[in-house]
Amino acid sequence: MRIFELEHRRVAIWGFGKEGQAVYQAIRAELPELRLTILCTEADAEIVESMNDPRVVCTIHVDEEVLSHYDYVLKSPGISPYKPMVEAAKERGTVFTSGTALWFAEHAGDKTLCVTGTKGKSTSTALLAHLLRAAGKHVGLVGNIGMPLVEMMRARADYWAIELSSFQTTEVAASGMRPHLALVTNVIAEHLDWHGDEATYVRDKLALLTAAKPHFAILNAQDANLTQLSLPNSEVHWFNHPEGWHLRDNHIYRGDEKIIDVSKMPLPGVHNRGNLCGVLLALEVLGFDARELAFSALAFKPLPHRLQSMGAKDGIEYVNDSISTTPNTALAALDVYANKKVAIILGGHDRGLDWYPFADALATQAPAVIITMGANGPRINAIIRRVCMEQGVVLQSALSLADAVDKARAALNGEGVVLMSPGAPSFGLYKDYVERGKDFAQIAGFDPERVGEIPGQGVL
After folding, report:
1. Which of 22, 44, 103, 379 could bridge to 149 as Cys pair (CB 3.0-4.6 Å)?
2. Are 65 and 19 within one domain?
3. Same domain, residue pair 291 and 154
4. pLDDT for 294-325, tens place per residue?
């Protein structure tokens, strides 16, 4: 649906963080007289009151009765649609939509290039924008990467590079607009507390392909969840396949043709370099000379909080991988620093993910030191304790991130890498992974604002 269709309707915005505030501004720009209700926390209510909008009321308590009062509820991505009160309100006629759905409805016909995946989606989206701009195109870099789509409601671009989380992929299909292209890096169990179970997470993630029906689908041939898909409505292309774009011996190949050495690229981790293959394939499908554009990746600036080396102090390098929210991403981080003495900091919000495969992997890629923290820290500690003893890994627990950094620094004794790759979200300790990454930077003695800058957002 489009914004004008909200006129004369009972409308609520649920959640008033960055996304909710952007939705409010987008609606107000087109419907200045529409009465709105903001469903939010007490802290956000203060922001609402400071706006002095006489046509806005604020409600803190939310339940089935409250939600059922409205024709439309524009929900922020972090609020699960699987809450019982949401399901009950739907049965009573309330329609739940989002800023993502509104934006896609307003941008029908645009060249929308949607990127999702459990791991590597932010870097892949930024790379796609970077290389398209290197080709001389006017590109919007938006979405889950840090700039809500609705902030760019009236902007225009040659191409839109859009990062989508699993919270947003179903909203693209709900908009009724087919993406021009969808790139999916991988699908690994995550956000189970939001989706309810692994099957629902996979279904929601893949909705960008199965329900939104992109014209072109760019898929990772090494991912089992992707290779079993049937997508009759899309033209499917595969990367990380020996006949196409793939990574081999620190080089990117196109079939048997060696294209570029990636060992000196600012892309830490095999998964990021493999995903560059997907970006190059997308460019090729779009009609660009991907072989030539591959060399522009050498000038790419890595994103913050993603295997970000902040520098060294007193012989110890500090690496900020705050974006790491699954055991798999923590393992990928360890693989990047496999040849160094590493103290890894693990733990955060407990979503019930399985840490036993991580424990098994420590038998072959154990770091020197592991510090656990956060709500799931004790559970991780208990699961990995036996293998840490067998591998001679120093295992300690910490009461806070500052405590964890102190213990990691002391255990390394002036030599090695303090790697914060928690393998868990930050909720309960921090607002989000960005706040956690900035705190890590400050604790380690670096400027948190400079560390957290994401270049290239918006339309350039």
Report:
1. 103
2. yes
3. yes
4. 999 999 988 899 899 999 999 999 999 998 98
